[in-house]
Amino acid sequence: MKLVKTFGRGKAAAEALIRSLEQRGARNVGKVEKTVTSIVTDVRRRGDRALRKYAEKFDGLKQGAELRVTREEMRAAWQATAPELQQAMRAAQANIRAFAERQRPGEWSFEPAAGVEAGQIVRPLESVGCYVPGGRYPLPSTLLMTVTPAQVAGVERIVVCSPKPARETLAAAWLAGVTEFYRVGGAQAIAALAYGTGSGEDGTIARVNKIVGPGNLFVTAAKTIVSSDCSIDMPAGPTEIVVNSEAGDAAGIAADLVAQAEHDPEALAVLITSNATLAAAVKAEVKSQAKGNEIATRSLAAQGCIYVTASVTEAQALTNRLAPEHLTVDSKADLKWVKNAGSVFIGDYSPQAMGDYITGPNHVLPTGRVGRVRGGLSVVDFLKVITVQEYTRKGLRALGPRAIALAEAEGLKGHARSVRVRMGKSS
User: Fold this and answer.
1) Which domains can be identified in the chain, with CATH numbers?
2) Catalytic one among 325, 363, 390, 415?
3) In 3-state terms, what secondary structure has residue 246?
4) What is the dihedral of CA 382, 58, 366, 23, to 10 degrees?
């Protein structure tokens, strides 16, 4: 990891590096945008034929093999899973469900004026596509993190796409009750979910209303490209971790940095501190702990950085500038200054890996500084909040004249007339 001071002679270079990190989302996606656009366009135009071509080329699908995973395959995977892992999956599922149930917004109404009732109802999306990465590592946790809140929301059709799905992922699908699962990944899977792969019932995959889930740069770029035609949750690209600490345990901090760095060579791992002694200790620990971990070593060499700031306040401001996916801080008191982050972990006994698997809050989180405008995936991503309003005669007589005044001020005569017509009936 690089160690950079944000003050003194290195101030200008540090600022340039920070500005580069602030543009990381657009810069990273730009690397693959041309290739991804070509794949998305091809799948949109040629449907199943293009999808199968790319699945065979990139996903290791054997020629003539079925794209759709059967429930029998999922059940066999579950039965072949060790009891200890089965118990862990059940525990994770229960915690994710409990957290999502508490996140669910309620329906309500109130009377802003006599004779006027306004409120909201909550309805689930009709269909969603859940993308589960399947490249370097099996990620059954991501299947549970995406499918479970959709189920809590009441989504009727939940589609899972994952390239070369591992036995563990198939087992999680059986546990979750998934009925529609395709062994495709990458940009081709995102395109298939967004546009469908055939007309009517002829296509292998029917289009969905929304696509959720994390992925590599190709998946992230594809989600961005299709977002004008199909809703997406967020650009949830290569993993990011920032640790903001003044007195944390160096070994624990280093372990978190290495753990998140091993996800992807493009992962971002950063420590921000004004404590130069801690910075040096963490740097040494990272070097030691990353030995033998090829992917972590690559990502830490390319994107890993320790920023030593002139003050605690500067460290806090820099953390908010980066708006990281995962953020670790020293204590609950730090929550007062945190403005931008996907998920926050507090103290020496809260490794970020616990949030990846078991706590309950979702591990599908915003990357590329999208943490400035939203948090992680939640049950709300699978719901629509629909507003409702009702007037009685009394209410219309009370507020109608004010609506007419506003409509006439805007020059919208038809709006004013529509209120007058109803008021005439109420007199």
Assistant:
1) 2-27+238-361 (3.40.50.1980), 31-107+125-234 (3.40.50.1980), 392-426 (no CATH)
2) 325
3) coil
4) -140
Q: Cα dihedral sign for 360, 362, 363, 368?
A: negative
State the catalytic residue, choosing from 326, 408, 410, 415: 326
Q: What percent of the chain is modeled with pLDDT above 90?
A: 89
- Please enumerate, as own/partner, the contacts of 57-66 that have beta carbons within 8 Å and a separation of 24 or more: 58/163, 58/185, 58/186, 58/188, 59/163, 59/164, 59/183, 59/184, 59/185, 59/186, 59/188, 60/163, 60/164, 61/183, 61/184, 65/183
Look at residues 391, 325, 410 and name the one whose alpha carbon lies nearest to residue 113: 391
Q: Would you put residue 17 in left (φ > 0), alpha (ψ -120 to 50) or beta?
A: alpha
Of 388, 176, 178, 353, give the one whose Cα is nearest residue 257. Answer: 353
Question: Measured in Å, how far apart are the chain's first and last C-alpha atoms?
Answer: 76
Q: Is 33 a catalytic residue?
A: no
Which residues are paired to 97 by β-bridges?
none
% the chain with pLDDT above 70 = 97
Give yes or no: 326 in active site: yes
**What Cα–Cα distance (Å) separates residue 173 from each residue in 62, 161, 200, 287?**
22, 11, 26, 37
In the structure encoding, which two tokens stand for residue 94, read together? Answer: 């229960």
Per-residue pLDDT at 26 exceeds 70: no
